[in-house]
Fold Glutamyl-tRNA reductase.
Amino acid sequence: MNLLSIGASYRTADVAVLERLVIPESSVPDLLQRLVAQPYVGEAVVVSTCNRVEVYAAVSGFHGGLGDICNVLSEHSGIPATELAGHLYVHYGEAAVRHSFRVSSGLDSMVVGEAQILGQLRDAYHAATEVDSAGRLLHELMQQTLRVGKRAHAETGIDKAGQSVVTAALDVAAEHLGGDLTGRSALIIGAGAMGSLSVATLTRSGVGPLRITNRSHERADRLAEAYGAVAIPFDQLDEALREVDIVVCATASTEPVLTRERLERVGKDLVVLDLAVPRDVAPDAVGLPGLTVVDIDSLANSRRTGPAAAETAAVEQIVVAEVDNFLGWLRGAEIAPTVAALRTRAEEVVSAEMRKLVSRRPEFTDEQRADVSRTLHRVVQQLLHSPTVRVRQLAAEPGGDQYAALLRELFDLDVPLATQADAVPEIGGKA
């Protein structure tokens, strides 16, 4: 099996495409099972955030795996595969490892250095673990991906500014509100992970007073209590909209929460930060007099300031080193079946020779036969020990796959090559 990552993000798709691709949390288990049921897909992890949808997979063939995953995403989103292909980036083998490490480090984020992606990757890995769609290869990849992300944030200053999608959106909002948001009243719609991040970020930025509303009032009440905000019943949303300067939308609703009709009733200038995918603001509401909408598309186009070049360079160096380490582990894992096949062949030879000896020397007692058998096994194991240890070490180095091939050729070993990369050149997509 080999690694393949396929996805669409703010770099390759606008929010209209992303909201069709987005995978609700409740739908992730079913999608994972559909993926691993495909002929060329053996393992799968799905990451779905406000600005990216990605599949990490272990596949038995590049073209077959690519086709299988594209078909599943096409069926899920309703976007024809030929149209969807224009929005996807594809990484295979080493490039897939590098991409996953860059994602966890925040290098591929809309706001470079944001740390929220680590939690999103962790959730995606846990979801795959729960439905058993992650096997040995993806378990190792995801564990190392999370470790690399933590290392990047701990050892560099890439996230020292505390940047996130929310802070970037607030920067844009400030441009429309005279540059200072201190004392501006705000309403957060949604009490999930993004809603919680929004409340925390607005509080640190001096925005307030804050109101929070959510379809589940209990969640809104808990979040409001934690930050000294006020929880508003969802059926009072219209009234709350008329009392604030800023609205942050972060729900998981599949339909717009802020319809054109609702926003027309506000009757005052309003800045709405729509961080939800699918969008919480109805598309036909954009352009209403006095309404400013900041969504994922406008954030992607705003090019918010990121960390200094030295900080991103330090993270890139970590990624390069960790990719080499992972590939070394992968090469070592790939030679394991060959080493196991060699030891099995040796055991078969010993057993065959023992049968011949017993047939020639029937006078041997059971004890004598056992002594001879143990001696032969010890000799074989001692002869194989140093070569097999050394070949594992050599296999972990660049070009190490040649040693496995050499062993198979020398000893005529029949080893399934499911762990071998198929002969497709490494591909890096538009990401």
